[in-house]
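mind reviewing both lines:
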Amino acid sequence: MDMPTGPGPGLPDVAYTADCRARVAFEVLAKRWDGVVVFTLGAHGPMRPRALVARIGGISPKVLNEALRRLERNGLVERRAYAEAPPRVDYALTEAGTALLVPMRAMGAWAARYADAVLAAQDRHEAR
């Protein structure tokens, strides 16, 4: 059952219910490292896994591999294997992955503006 919602300024009229397609966008990046991988590939172009680990920092090869598999499954990243010796694989953003950079940058701008307020609210809540 869709509940009526009024759009905010410049926003489409979307009800965020269990079957709402807009939820897909939030769920795609719900995992901790997935957004970081997308953003890194968007900033630096196709990369090999070892280069991604080095560029990102703080991510293990295992966790990176899991993130790349999820992103590939969601159609945001493509795995490209090259018939070379030794074998070489790199990852690049798909069209959908590249398009995701726009709302990610908007979320980054929101975070830059409001993160301190959110953290302060969390501290106040914990102090209760």
Summary: The chain has a mean pLDDT of 89. Residues 2 and 39 are 33 Å apart (CA to CA). The first strand starts at residue 77 and ends at 82. Strands lie at 77-82, 88-93.
